[in-house]
Amino acid sequence: MSPEPGTDTDPAVDPGADPDTRRARRRAGTPRLHPFGLRTRLVLAFLLVAAVGCGTTAALTYRAARNAILEQTQNTAVSAFRDQVDPLVISLPVNADSLRDTVLSIARQGKPRPWRVYAEYGTVRVSSTDRPTSSVVTPELRARAQARSATPHGSFQRVVKNGTPYLTMAVPAVFRTHVSQGTAQPTGLVFYAVMELDEEEANIEAMVTAARDGALPALAVALIPALIASRGVLRPVRELRRAAHSMGRGRLDTRIHAKGSDELADLARTFNESAAELERSVTELRNAEARARRFASDVSHELRTPLAGMLAVTEVLDEDAAGLDSDTARAVRLISAETGKLAVLVEDLMEISRFDARAAELHTDEVDAADCVRKTLQHRHWTDPEQVVPYLGEGIRARLDPRRFDVVVANLVGNALRHGAAPVTVRLYAEGDELVTEVADRGPGIHPDVLPHVFDRFYKADQARTRSAGSGLGLAITLENVRLHGGTVHAANHPTGGAVFTVRMPL
C-alpha cells in the first residue's frame, strides 16, 4: 500500500523493504555533491569566455600598440639618418680622417636617441666608437646596402643580440651626375647606424604588465555576473529536483512556481502538468486498489460464517460417507475437500488483506528457533524422514513472532512437498546476527522465467493450469511475514537440482 500524499516514510525504519531498496531510498533522499556540477561548469564557462575576450583584446591591443611604437621610432630614426647622409659631399678617394669627422658629426645628430655610426668604403672601416665595425649589422643588411642598383636606397632591420633589441640602418652615399635631373650614382661608401630599442621594449613590457594586471580584476568582476547567471539558471533546476524528490516520497500534490517565458519556465509548467496528471492517475489507482482490498476483505469476512457451517456439515457427511453408495460417497468427499480449500483461501485472503491495510501486528518473544521449527513439522505431521529431513542448530535464541514464523516454515515446506520432490530438507542455523532458515527440495527446480514471480499473488507458472492444490497466496503471505520481521526471503535453484528458499531474519 503506497503512502498517502503528504506522508513522510523514513526508509531507514521501513521493515518491509529489503536492504538494497532501503539503500537506494537513502541515496535518493540525500543530495549528492558534485565537485564539477552545473554551477561550477556555468561559472567556469562564463570565466573562460571572459578570459578569452580579455586575452584576445589584450593580444590585438598589444600587437597594434607594439607595431605603432616601433614603427614610429624606426620611421623617425631612418628619416633622420637619411637626412644626415643624403646632403653629404663625398670626395673620392675617401680619406679616413675626414670620414671619421663626418661619422662623429652624424652620430651627434642621432634621434630620437644617440646612434653608433659606422662607415665602410672598400677596406676602409671608420666608426664613432672605439670599434671599427659592429657585430649587430647583419650580412643581410650589408648585402642590401651594397647592392648595385640604378637607384640606391636605404635599408633598416630590427635585430636582437644578447637579449637587447637594436634598430640597424644602412644608407649608401651617392653623388649626382646631373643636378637638374637628380640622377644619383653610388659612391661605394655606406653609412650604418645602430640604435638601441631598449626604451621601446620597456614601454611594451610595461604595456603587457598593465594589460595582465587589468585582466585579473576584470576576471574577478566577471565572476559576479557569472554567479548571478548561474544562480538564475540553477534556481529552477534545484526547485525541480526538490519537487521530483518530494513526489518520489509520495507527495503528489507538489508543484513548481513557474514564471517567465523561457525554456526553464516551460519545463516547470510541463512538470506541473505531468504531476497533476500523475496525481489524478494515482488517486484513481489508489481508490480502485482500496475498493478491491475492501471487497476482498468484506467478501472473505462474509464467507467465514457460511463456511463454518459448511465445514461442520462436511465433517458429518465424511463420517457417514462409508454407508453411502459409491457415487454419492465420491461426491460427498469432493464437496468436503473443496470446502476445505475454500476455507483456506478465505483465511489467506483475510490475512493478505490485513497486510495490505497495514493492520498486521508483530507479537515477538524470545524463543528457541529449533523448537519452533520442530513444532511446525509435528503439527502438520511432517515427521516422516523420507518426506522431511530437519537439520536444526540447537540453542539458537531469536526474537520472533512464533505464530508468523510457524506460517513461514509451514508455507515453504508445504510448497516444496507440493511442487518439488521428497525428501525436503529444512536447515536452521545462525550466521552473524541473522537467523537463517533454508528449505530445499529434490524436484526439477524453478524455471528461470518464473523465479522473479514466485512471490507474486496468484501467479501461475503454467497459464493453462487453472487450479492448484494451494490458495496461490502462500508464498506472498510468507514474504509479508518475513518483511514484518525485518528480514528477507530469496528463491533460487540448487546447482545439483531442486529449489531452495532462504529466509534471513535478525536474531
TrEMBL record:
From the UniProt entry, list the residue stretches annotated as the region Disordered: 1-31
Q: Any stretches that span the bilayer, and where are they?
A: 42-62
The kind of enzyme this is, by top-level EC class, is transferase
Q: Where is the HAMP domain?
A: 231-283
Q: Which UniProt keywords apply?
A: Kinase, Membrane, Phosphoprotein, Transferase, Transmembrane, Transmembrane helix, Two-component regulatory system
EC number(s)? Answer: 2.7.13.3
Q: What is this protein called?
A: histidine kinase
Provenance organism: Streptomyces litmocidini
